[in-house]
Amino acid sequence: MALAVVMVAPAALAAASPLLAWRDPLYIAACFAGIVAMALLLVQPLLAVGRMAGLSLLAGRHAHRWIGAAFVLLVAIHVGGLALTNAPDVLDALTFQSPTLFSPFGVVALAAVIAIALVTAARRRLRLRPRLWRAVHVGLATVIVIGTIAHAVLVEGTMEPLTKGALALAVMGSLLLSVVVGFRPAART
Fold first, then answer.
1. In a domain, 53, yes or no
2. Using CA atoms, how far apart are residues 119 and 133, in angstroms rounded to an integer?
3. Which candidate in 13, 22, 44, 177 could, as Cys together with 160 as Cys, close a disulfide (CB 3.0–4.6 Å)?
4. pLDDT per position as a tens digit, 17-47
């Protein structure tokens, strides 16, 4: 229940933001795609290492794959929607020319999202050994998490600061737990 609250509260409170009043629907959809994508980062590491209550390791990994695909789609909607509504700002961000502090973190996270999607799609062809695959995947995921958190925390926008901060801490905690725990089976109680 707490996990759901931490995931849903930022989007629910952002929906009530007065900053949305003068924005067009495409921009709003792009922003919410980013919020939902960040929320999905909370469960991704837990699913990968079999630490989601009620799911086996196999079921968790299956869900991890589907949610990973949804995450990539949401990031594409976020960046694409922002590009369609404000192309000059997105171009400045992508070329590291933007004066905003949050832009470079978002661009680095985006690069890691593209890299992780490509490596995942080509995993079988690349014939990566499990240990190397995990190192590459966790490394890129770490860049995504840190970049996303920094990007979101530095944006002063529709997300309410307390729930955004709680989500950011929970996402970082989820990543750290998955790295520390690894793929060891959960203790049966």
1. yes
2. 9
3. 13
4. 999 998 999 999 999 999 999 999 999 999 9
In a domain, 85, yes or no: yes
Q: Count Cβ atoms below 10 Å from residue 125 Cβ, excluding itself.
A: 7
pLDDT tens-digit map of 62-84 = 999 999 999 999 999 999 999 99
Q: 168-181 burial, b for 16+ CB within 10 Å, e for fewer?
A: bebbbebbeebeee
Residue 10 lies in a domain: no
Reading the block at residue 123, the tokens are 């995993």
- Residue 159 CA to residue 50 CA, distance in Å, equals 30
Structure tokens at 68: 């990973």
- Amino acid at position 70, single letter: A
Q: What are phi and psi of 118, to 5 degrees?
A: -65, -45
> At a CB cut-off of 8 Å and minimum separation 6, what does 63 contact?
47, 52, 55
* Tally of structural domains, the chain: 1
For residues 116 and 87, what is the distance between their CA atoms, to the nearest angstrom?
25
H or E element in which residue 71 lies = helix 57-85
> Tokens at residue 182, please?
């690894």
Q: Report the alpha-carbon distance of residue 105 to residue 108 in Å, rounded.
A: 5
